[in-house]
Structure prediction request, 700 residues.
Amino acid sequence: MGDNSLAPRAKSERITIRDVASDAGVSVAAVSKVLRDAYGVSEALRAKVRASIDRLGYRPHAAARGMRGQTYTLGFMIPDLHNPFFADILGGINTALERTQYQLLLGVCESEPATERALLEAMIDRRMDGLILIGSRIGAEHLAALADRIPTTVIAIHPKSDVNYDTVNNDDPLGATLVVQHLVAAGYRHIAYLSQQMNINDKAMVTRQREVGYRAAMKEAGLARNIQVVYAGQTRREAQTEARHLLEQRNRPDAVFCWTDFIALEVLSVARDLGLSVPGDLAVVGYDNTSYCDLAQNALTSIDQSGQVLGLQAARLLIERIGGREKSEHYMVTPRLVARASSAGPTRRA
Amino acid sequence: MGDNSLAPRAKSERITIRDVASDAGVSVAAVSKVLRDAYGVSEALRAKVRASIDRLGYRPHAAARGMRGQTYTLGFMIPDLHNPFFADILGGINTALERTQYQLLLGVCESEPATERALLEAMIDRRMDGLILIGSRIGAEHLAALADRIPTTVIAIHPKSDVNYDTVNNDDPLGATLVVQHLVAAGYRHIAYLSQQMNINDKAMVTRQREVGYRAAMKEAGLARNIQVVYAGQTRREAQTEARHLLEQRNRPDAVFCWTDFIALEVLSVARDLGLSVPGDLAVVGYDNTSYCDLAQNALTSIDQSGQVLGLQAARLLIERIGGREKSEHYMVTPRLVARASSAGPTRRA
DNA sequence: CTCGCCACGTAGAACGGTATACGTAGAACG
DNA sequence: CGTTCTACGTATACCGTTCTACGTGGCGAG
Prediction:
């Protein structure tokens, strides 16, 4: 088995930093410096090394780097694959990472704190340079401990006090307020809020924040006694069951505000099944303004918080923090209501 | 800085295999053998080591493993985030990986061959133990070269000849045939196929395979002259434009078969915008039977190929291959038509 | 008794980078 | 002209595993 075969004979023939160094006639350390844009290399040497890298097609070995330096890989924890809003966020992150060396390691925790913790451990084992978490449920304490070990950015969590990680959010109470005000202006009165079940009663969760905004706005509108909050499980089916239950009751609401579009689409479906006309008999409003809202068969009024921007900013903040920033930053998007046919106004009956 | 502090003092204090070895009173190599379930350790030693591992809370460092052995990380290449079918597949993969040590590194290539190639390189840099590709567009030659370097499983590609990777597919020509037969039986005649634009004309792509089945079935039904194939771009907007164009033409089809549900939902939307009733004026059929088909406002007839099963099998095959299997295997699912209201039959006008 | 083998462990060399400490030459300064 | 500083490179320890090669003790066979 001569190793001077013509074709790159698969396995074991990877070009290493040593090959580059000898090709360029410099030390291994010099090549490493060029790779990392580190201090103390002249332009001439840099050019020489870059030429060798290109000529040989050298690519640094991520695991080897990870032993002392960075892995150039970021962990991304997502609660649920099927909610299209998370795809928007992921899209934003990908955009931010496009021109960098970073890659994304995905974890899907199915909104289970235990699974989330296990996946986070696995990410730490893999020496992620940083983590992006969405709507984490591991709790404030665990989160703080995590951020102590590894640069972290959290999307969709409103921490109570100052913390050692960055956050990216929209103003959830405001978003909920916009919904209530819009529905009231359109003529709806009995507005229910369909939220998500939580095993922990955590004020930091966005669903809870939206509930706060909803309750306040209802009171503000003089509709305090019409306040109705329902908590549905994680899955489509559970949400469906809960929605059916809600809409079949004697004194059903004339509007349902859902914590996320994904669930609102289920409510639209249930309403149609029950023969309720939207928006005549029932208004439905979602949150996130995902692409499905735009489809004519949904025409779903929703709150835009721009997942793209959220993801992009999260990635930006994380990379800054990896770069050495210590002080935490908190990015906040102002939500915007996008009105569509699903909340156009109730039919008045004499 | 005593290293016997109570709280795990962040950084640099990670427990290594050496700590475990000294705690258990054995050699580092022995611990490594236990970790890998390798040959040549007695039950007694194994128990001793396991006890130390548990006591210390030791976790192996993935990057260090990657230098000589496996990284226990798999690369997963997905063409597009927003197509919910890919979420189903990812769900299946995650299920298969749940009880293993493997994690998933995600790449989103936006159906761009150049991006896909770049991401694949990044995955190789990170020493993935194996790769799962969906609907890859890098071409047969590149694919073969890739699989030569790294264990690979490909979903939704039908290779012409025998190859050095495993595949997981559904029978796409059959799926398309089922659609045509169903629509014909329901009374539709002018059935168009809305496919996806491709930069490469590759018979291996599933969209092409479905086209083959569609054309054959149309001929079989004596509708050869009604064959109409339209190619839409990757994005929602492009698909929408193409659908609008198709449905506004003088001699518009009375049924549209879409290569994936995601696009079919757009067609439903366009139909509604144009005032066409579904299924009276127009039948719409999708592919993949994603969860959105079930919503009452869509009620979309579709072909079920079970993304869950596809993903699960892909992961299984890949792990087998990583385990040493050389011979390629090809898993094929038989597609099943799920009829819903969107193809219930045209309104007959005198 | 001696040889060879087996089962179990160990020592130490990889793996491919990064980080640190240090050497050296030329410039600036007094 | 000697000293100090700065800019640039280099040599080498080190990261935490896996893997190869080898040592050792016990045991059955010749």
